């Protein structure tokens, strides 16, 4: 590893590289109940992540102005790009010097990295490929499109049907992974790799080049069609089954793309999904052979025809558009996910959604389907986005969430600083529950009233109790909120967050009464070994939980609407442990 000194950072020598552990074990995924967890240095790891701007990791000097601010945001993992054009500026000549400095500096600051391989495809274009590739259209032909019947035009997009292109990409990616193994296997600074970025085709539903036209008229690959036909309905994605209910009745080896998926854009999108996923699988395979840490790819989501999967009042096209070609045709959207998973297994470990404008929970469900790990590599970085991470981490057991463009935020102003700080204090408990009893955790959020005009309740049954999470009560204007609850067993719960009420109801048919029995604040502290522990704080009984009716986890500055008595102040530490109970009464007890 080459680490050049930085003359512009006076105190850099104070941050010594950690001594590598004698026993090295690369990051990997471990199957748990209904999903997987990321294991780092033989321990489960919850990524409190954020993504840098696309060019940030290209300069170690720039990043030295960034690391301290990232630590102050309570981030433990940063996502950043490694571009093909940077590591192979001349064909066959590889340069990792800048990347080595970046990785070394991340290690000094006790931060992990997820590296994004911007190779052949980035946002449905090929603008991060080296110049020698982009200029050589004889060896590396382009995709051609014809939008709305216009004359066929050339795209800045490498053809996924060209073997020489994926071979060149795979060679470069393999070199990268071999180098990472050499410099980082003993440290596990780099946790995962994203292979390409938001792959697909914009401007048309399929490639109109000569070779693409010829291949489109041929039958769907027999192995793929047999896989789709023989998979159970529980394994196939519901949105695939909804769109293509007749697939199981076709004869493998004879059905064309139009036969299988309907004439027009639907079949053309599936044709491109097959091509792009095979291309990326070849690239990923090359890297896995060298250093098999977890690999994934991400998706630019589509919009359903009725806009039902959006969470915005912006125009539909902002959310990705409703037609293939308006969003990247052939990318791993929910309805093409089965093709992608078949073609990329086992070289990709999972597929992740970039989630800005879509309904957060429905997308979590789409990409958690069939036990796939959930990771959100790009999302909103504002308060509205930060609130939603609690749902991903809590209810859907996410490996991590990653607000985008984080290096242009200040820790003192960034939304995630507060959210991640609180989540970090209970991450060990969350990880234990994710592994053994994920059904015991529920995340939730409440937006500002003008953002979420519909009353929202979050309801879940835990044992003999039905718990309802409502927006925190105030006499004035109700505010936003977010958090999670963790069922600890025997009627005990840990409440984390702010801006919500906790209410209990017994589902025991013999019970005549249910209430909160006891509640205490928990204070974050550290034990002698430096491990986070939750110590007892104030006792929140009687008036503080409305005599068992509900406990309020208040906002920091609740609006009392001019009411002169400051009632129900809530939990100051934003972490509370409480116990609920119910009673069964006989007639003699009345």
Automatic annotation (TrEMBL):
**What are the annotated GO cellular component locations?**
beta-galactosidase complex
The record ties this protein, via Gene3D superfamilies, to: Glycosidases, putative beta-Galactosidase from caulobacter crescentus
Pfam families named in the record: DUF5597, Glyco_hydro_42
Q: Name one GO biological process term.
A: carbohydrate metabolic process
Domain DUF5597: residue ranges: 417-551
The organism's place on the tree of life at top rank: Eukaryota
Q: Which UniProt keywords apply?
A: Glycosidase, Hydrolase
| GO terms for MF | beta-galactosidase activity
What range(s) does the Glycoside hydrolase family 42 N-terminal domain occupy? 67-216
Protein name per Swiss-Prot or TrEMBL: Glycoside hydrolase 35 catalytic domain-containing protein
Organism classification: Eukaryota, Fungi, Dikarya, Ascomycota, Pezizomycotina
